[in-house]
Design goal:
Largest sheet: 2 strands, antiparallel
Radius of gyration: 28 Å
Shape: elongated
CATH topology of the largest domain: Topoisomerase I, Chain A, domain 4
Helix content: 40-55%
Pfam families: RNA_pol_Rpb1_4, RNA_pol_Rpb1_5
InterPro entries: RNA_pol_Rpb1_4, RNA_pol_Rpb1_5, Rpb1_funnel_sf
CATH architecture of the largest domain: Orthogonal Bundle
Distance between the termini: 53 Å
CATH class of the largest domain: Mainly Alpha
Strand content: under 5%
GO molecular function: DNA-directed RNA polymerase activity; metal ion binding
Number of domains: 2
Oligomer: single chain
Keywords: DNA-directed RNA polymerase, Metal-binding, Nucleotidyltransferase, Transcription, Transferase, Zinc
EC number: 2.7.7.6
Number of helices: 5
């Protein structure tokens, strides 16, 4: 059985960047590497990163590291190019209406006190009201009003006043 508090286990399954294969390279042999053309090098790396690599093993490892850096740079430049093209396509679009006119909205409620207040606040802030909000006969917020922290606090105050009765 694996000890969940073992540091190697924590590194492997923490959800952080990296994976079990990289932890394996720390404690086990690194294995076969490929050259810049993608062909497997006949000499496997028998050392691990914890104990250190010989000069030959280090040089063989550098091929893969360099290839990884180049591949990342190529992917990044492709994403940057796509973003630039998207901006070029939509830069002439201007939104001139403050109300899109939709009658459909998304209902957000604290689900009878089940949703923590912090989550409710994060869910509400930055949205726009689809309808007027009434507490009894009193209108506390109007359609198309941006929801900020002040309005959220007002909602929470009224909600807890109603919940007490």
């Amino acid at each position: 059985m694996t000890d969940p508090f073992n540091p190697v286990h924590i590194m492997s399954f923490s959800g952080a960047r990296g994976n079990a294969s990289q932890v394996h390279q720390l404690v086990g042999m690194r294995g076969l590497m490929s050259d810049p053309q993608g062909q497997m090098i006949d000499l496997p790396i028998q050392s691990n990163l914890r104990e250190g690599l010989s000069l030959t093993e280090y040089i063989i490892s550098c091929y893969g590291a360099r290839k990884g850096v180049v591949d990342t740079a190529v992917r990044t430049s492709d994403a940057g190019y796509l973003t630039r093209r998207l901006v070029e396509v939509v830069q002439h679009i201007v939104v001139r209406r403050t109300d899109c006119g939709t009658v459909r909205g998304i209902s957000v409620s604290p689900r009878d006190g089940m949703m923590p207040e912090r989550i409710l606040i994060q869910t509400l802030i930055g949205r726009v009201l689809a309808d007027d909000i009434y507490m009894g006969a009193r209108c506390i917020a109007t359609r198309n009003q941006d929801i900020g922290i002040g309005l959220v606090n007002r909602f929470i105050t009224f909600f807890f006043q109603i919940e007490k009765f």
